[in-house]
Amino acid sequence: MPLRLLSLAGVFLAALLTGCGATATRPSASAHATGTSPSGSPSATTSAGPTGTTPSQPARTGTAPARVTATVTAPARISTATITNPNSGGTGLTTAAPAGTPACVGADLHAAAVPPNGATGTILLGFTLTNVSAHPCVTYGWPGFSFLESAGVVAPTATTRSTRDILGPTPPRRFIIAPAAEASFRVTVHDTNAQGGEGGCRSYTGVQIIVPNDTAALVTAIPNGPVQSCGTVAVSPLEPGASATGQ
Questions:
Q1: DSSP state of 26
Q2: Beta bridge partners of 208
Q3: Residue 226: is the preceding peptide bond cis (ω within 30°)?
Q4: Taking phi first (over 0 means left), then psi (-120 to 50 degrees means alpha), and beta for anything else, what does residue 30 get?
Q5: Nearest to residue 83, comparing CAs of 70, 97, 71?
Q6: Which residues pair with residue 117 across a beta bridge?
Q7: What pLDDT does residue 98 have?
């Protein structure tokens, strides 16, 4: 009996030793988890994370739109004519005029007066300027104006520029006077003073006119004169035709 127990104990011990040897020779599971080989050295097969390289963009395809060429024609060149009123204090007025059209000067024009129009208190004197040259000319603004004494002497005349009078608005405008055509303007005269009397009033038989952009004087008589003036007179700007005369 004791021998049998010893035999069984020997078999059990041999089996136990065999099992322990098998366990010692297997690679450690933790070694694989930490990226080492069974020998304990770093594993060359560990997996790397993202490399940070941007994926290449797909190539763009398509045809660029065709270039469009626009042809622009420059407008006709416009010259500038300087129109200066001799009584403007040297400031003048500048407007655009078709190329080649000169400004009207006294030598181009002939002045004439129409009979006075109005009643006691206010009188309108109308004047025309006819282009007697062979070429058109451009004009703009207010003419210079003075009364003449009976002997033709220029009288000191207080004037103001008007853009409205008893006949309505008179805005300044630029326009061309063709050969044989005319421009016109009017002058508002008061033949009584502020008190309704004639103190300080004077009588005149003619006028002197200076067109814008010139200093040459045009002289004309007042039909049915003389005309009495008391104080400042209002001068309208030039207008095309004879419309400003009020006739």
A1: S
A2: 146, 219
A3: yes
A4: alpha
A5: 97
A6: 124
A7: 72
End-to-end CA distance of the chain: 168
Express each pLDDT in 31-87 by its tens digit: 343 443 444 444 444 444 444 444 455 455 555 455 544 443 333 332 333 333 333
Measured CA to CA, the distance from residue 139 to residue 211 in angstroms comes to: 8
Task: Report, in angstroms and rounded to the nearest whole number, the Rg of the chain calculated over CA atoms.
Answer: 56
Give ∠ CA 14-19-21 in degrees, rounded to 5. 95
Q: How is residue 120 written in tokens? A: 């006691």
Q: How far apart are CA 77 and CA 72, in angstroms?
A: 15
The residue type found at 111 is: A
For the entire predicted model, the pTM comes to 0.61
Q: What is the DSSP letter of 223?
A: T
pLDDT in tens, 154-176: 999 999 999 999 889 999 999 99
